[in-house]
Write a structure and sequence with these properties.
This protein is an alpha+beta fold and about 190 residues long. It has one domain (about 5-190): Glutaredoxin. It contains nine helices and four strands; from the N terminus they run ααααβαβαββααα. The protein has helices at about 5-15, 15-20, 25-40, 45-50, 65-80, 100, 135-140, 155-180, 180-190; strands spanning about 55-60, 85-95, 115-120, 125-130. A four-stranded mixed beta sheet has the order 2-1-3-4, with helices on both faces. The model has no long low-confidence stretch (mean pLDDT about 95).
């Protein structure tokens, strides 16, 4: 069960983006860093994120070996870095944290990346994984036979931008849920 205590413990075992990427093999690190370098938020997107008023915690189950993770986790990191006072992001390896990944299975699979959104006190808010809608559309359009693209597989800029927007939308959805939460509005007097 995803209790606040369990989520807090798992979050505290997580790593910030750069430290997590450093756990991968050199070629994996290169792929992750290449996507990170290509991911840019527009001014309006950065302004939206800077306007977040509630703290949120985001814990991502991932694998440095995973092609979908390579093509999405750097986008999540770019989003979080815009407002580090409000967005606290950590990554855990799916296989090393099986107690966590088994509780967030999607369609009975250990899918990655999967992001768990939490309130400031580690209460569960939402979950998104393993691909955003734009990613699923792109994969379906290419009719990939494999369940996951190879790390370093070409990623079109339009797909990267659409996937970045999908993740941003999910961050905004979680922020609005937190901002409108009666429990948190009472706590913060707003």
């Amino acid at each position: 069960m995803l209790t606040a205590d369990f989520l807090k413990t798992t979050f505290n075992h997580g790593l910030p983006f750069a430290e997590y990427v450093a756990t991968g093999k050199p070629d994996q690190q290169t792929h992750w860093n290449d996507v990170y370098a290509r991911a840019e938020l527009a001014a309006a997107q950065r302004n939206l994120l800077r306007g977040f008023t509630r703290e949120m915690r985001v814990l991502v189950s991932s694998g440095t070996w995973c092609g979908d993770c390579v093509q999405q986790c750097p986008l999540i990191a770019r989003i979080a870095e815009v407002n580090p006072e409000r967005i606290h992001l950590r990554f855990v390896d799916r296989d090393k944290h099986s107690d966590f990944s088994e509780q967030i299975m999607i369609n009975q699979g250990l899918r990655v990346p999967t992001a768990v959104f939490m309130a400031e006190d580690f209460e569960f808010v939402g979950l998104l994984g393993d691909r955003t809608l734009s990613r699923y559309r792109a994969v379906a359009a290419r009719q990939l036979g494999a369940a996951c693209p190879l790390p370093g597989a070409p990623l079109e800029q339009d797909e990267l931008n659409a996937t970045l927007q999908d993740w941003l939308d999910e961050f905004e959805r979680a922020q609005l849920l937190l901002r409108l939460s009666p429990r948190l509005r009472e706590k913060h007097g707003d």
